[in-house]
Amino acid sequence: MLSNTKRTTIKKGAHKAVFEQEKLHQIIDESLIAHIALQGEQGPMVIPMLAWRVDDMVYIHGAKNSRLLKGLKKREPTCLTFTLFDGWVLARSAFHHSAHYRSAVVLGSFSVIDDNQEKDRLLNIFIEQIAPGRTNEVRLSNEKELTATELLAIPLTEASVKIGKHGVNDDSTDMNIPVWAGVLPYRTVVGPLETVPEQEGLIKKPDYQQAYGERWYQDAPHDSELNNMTYS
């Protein structure tokens, strides 16, 4: 179960709150982008960063001279948000139009991973998450590159999850309005691979479908083509 603190208690749309740790993990693993809050010298900022999860920790990385990472290294309190947009909800009234989404908020402070061997392990896990088997083929990071890379970690000890998937919620007085109502889904599609020009036709394309499941690109006919198909 997720933590239940004053900061993670969802008040607006409380019926959308989800408390399973698995749902938190799924949102982070699918998103891989965290919007991170920081109180900078010129005021508050929110910066999107690549982020990945290993067990109950979330990691971000960047250059040693990154202004964002310099601030987070001081263990200043921060907030990470992950959002997946799943579709528009189109109602019979303008007021009740809304959206389907999955979101997660992580609160806490970052710590620094200094050991280069551990950095290498965690960065390689990230590569394997997005492209399984790739660390067996590419040149891995050397000591100079690892030393130049800042790697920070934050635990998933204080987090909340909110999922909106409620469908159309029209007022009873609007039910007879003759306008289409329903959900306009959004789906993230991964692929197909785009080869660099100098390798075109020379190196076989890898298969990373296992990392993306149903989100992997499928070369299927469009609806218009399906309408013209005949079946025996």
UniProtKB/TrEMBL annotation:
GO terms for molecular function: oxidoreductase activity. Gene3D superfamilies: Electron Transport, Fmn-binding Protein, Chain A. Keywords: Oxidoreductase. SUPFAM superfamilies: FMN-binding split barrel (SSF50475). Its EC number is 1.-.-.-. It comes from the Bacteria. It is an enzyme of class 1 (oxidoreductase). This is Pyridoxamine 5'-phosphate oxidase family protein. It comes from Vibrio kanaloae.
